[in-house]
Automatic annotation (TrEMBL):
Transmembrane segments: none
SUPFAM superfamilies for the chain: alpha/beta knot, L30e-like
Annotated region (Disordered), positions in chain: 44-87
Stretch forming the signal peptide: none
A cellular component annotation (GO) from this entry: cytoplasm
Descriptive protein name: rRNA methyltransferase 3, mitochondrial
Key words of the record: Methyltransferase, rRNA processing, Transferase
Record PANTHER family: RRNA METHYLTRANSFERASE 3 (PTHR43191), RRNA METHYLTRANSFERASE 3, MITOCHONDRIAL (PTHR43191:SF2)
Any one of the GO BP annotations: rRNA processing
A Pfam family annotated for this UniProt entry: SpoU_methylase
Single Gene Ontology MF annotation: RNA methyltransferase activity
Source species of the chain: Orycteropus afer afer
Domain RNA 2-O ribose methyltransferase substrate binding per the UniProt entry, residue ranges: 124-195
Polar residues bias: start-end ranges: 68-84
Length: 421
């Protein structure tokens, strides 16, 4: 029995050794697979030495070597690019905004407030196309904030001398941007002066004897759309009376799509000074199709079909009431007597100016007085029964392009008359 036990005991020892070998062996084999061979011995007896290729071995050798034995790293040879070299040779340099830089926030606070804009004389232009149009028209830049250097290199280099160029993160531009998809560049410009601007030659060549007067327009989107229509129709000038929304507000600029730099725009004009901006013999026409005043003066045919607006002329309701003259005893009407006609009848015999009023307050009394003094009329755009009135931007577009059509027909008639005397 003892011999059997001893036999079993001796038989178990190799098994225990094998179990211990299985527990440690795989780790050693894994470490062996990770190592790179130092020498390779072929069956023919040839020995080839292998150079260590791992980065770990290289770092180990560099750490063991002294600082004097380490070779300095050679910089990468980057092929030269002619565009950056030309950009640098022109003397342009840009700064990089570090965390905590408040230059962008301080400037945005100024240009986004109308009182600050008027006090500092600065405006904000956003987007590569709008900035390029402004530079082409002669606007004076003060600073550019951009997220990629390529956006600055697209601009004319001669226009960037002396301008602060500051590279910021795109997230910072996105925080201050009014666009849904910011373009990564913002420009701070001096408030443009229409006298010093250089407008496109094509616009000046196709300019018409047609002006636009914006009277008490308060909606930024409407004003920007009106300016865009004025540039498309070929207006020679746009006047903004005092009380209109700021023409350099970001929403107006976004809706204008560059029209600010295609047609001269004069803002904050007092009504007493409006005639000085008009050419000689200019007739002023008022776009107004609302009120009982228009309905009474329209022809019976139009009234029978309902092509009039039935909303009361609320702003001048107190002037519609007749008042007795103290000297003569006769009754008089304070509302200027301006004839009403349909917009599609000819009204461009002389240089014409069209007045567009705001949707909330309508046209002012001064506009009707100016129309009366110049022999102008009130232009009625017929609308279907039950419709209150048209949007001011739509009414301006209709009248301006109708005026353009009439001027083109008139010019064709004159050219045929000169050809066949």
């Amino acid at each position: 029995m003892a011999a059997l036990v001893n036999g079993v005991g001796w038989g178990m020892r190799p098994l225990l050794l094998v179990l211990q070998t299985r527990d440690v062996g795989p780790r050693r084999w894994v470490r062996a697979l990770r190592r790179s061979p130092v020498k390779v011995v072929f069956p023919s007896g040839q020995v080839v030495e292998q150079k260590p290729s791992s980065g770990k071995q290289r770092r180990k050798e560099e750490s063991e070597a002294g600082p004097q034995e380490q070779q300095p790293k050679q910089p990468l040879q980057v092929p030269s690019n002619p565009t950056p070299s030309a950009w640098e040779e022109s003397g342009l340099r840009y700064e990089r905004a570090f965390p905590g830089d408040k230059r962008l926030s301080s400037v945005m606070t100024i240009v986004k407030s109308r009182p600050f804009r008027e006090k500092k004389g600065k405006i904000l232009l956003e987007g590569r196309r709008l900035i390029a149009d402004a530079l082409k028209a002669g606007a004076v830049p003060k600073a550019f904030f951009f997220s990629r250097l390529e956006y600055i290199k697209e601009l004319p280099m001669d226009k960037l001398k002396g301008v602060s160029l500051i590279k910021v993160k795109f997230e910072d531009i996105k925080d201050w941007s009014d666009l849904v998809t910011p373009q990564g560049i913002m420009g701070i410009f001096a408030k443009p002066d229409h006298v010093k601007m250089t407008y496109p030659e094509t616009h000046l060549r196709h300019s018409l004897p047609l002006l636009l007067i914006c009277d008490n327009l308060r909606d930024p989107g409407n004003l920007g759309t009106i300016l865009r229509s004025a540039a498309g129709a070929g207006c020679s000038k746009v006047l903004l009376t005092k009380g209109c929304v700021d023409v350099w507000e970001p929403k107006v600029l976004r809706a204008g799509m560059g029209a600010h730099f295609q047609v001269p725009v004069v803002s904050n004009v007092e009504w007493e000074a409006v005639p000085s901006y008009l050419p000689a013999d200019t007739r002023v026409y008022v776009a107004d199709n609302c009120g009982l005043y228009s309905q009474v003066q329209m022809s019976n045919k139009a009234s029978d079909h309902g092509w009039v607006c039935d909303r009361r002329f609320l702003k001048f309701h107190k002037y519609e009431e007749e008042e007795e003259d103290l000297e003569t005893g006769a009754k008089k009407d304070w509302l200027p007597d301006v004839e009403v006609q349909s917009y599609d009848l000819e009204w461009t015999e002389a240089p014409a100016a069209v007045v567009i009023g705001g949707e909330t307050h309508g046209v002012s009394l001064e506009s009707l007085q100016l129309a009366e003094s110049t022999g102008g009329r009130r232009l009625l755009i017929p609308v279907a029964p039950g419709v209150d009135s048209l949007n001011s931007a739509m009414a301006a577009s209709i009248l301006l392009f109708e005026g353009k059509r009439q001027l083109r027909i008139r010019e064709e008639r004159l050219s045929r008359g000169r050809s066949y005397p």
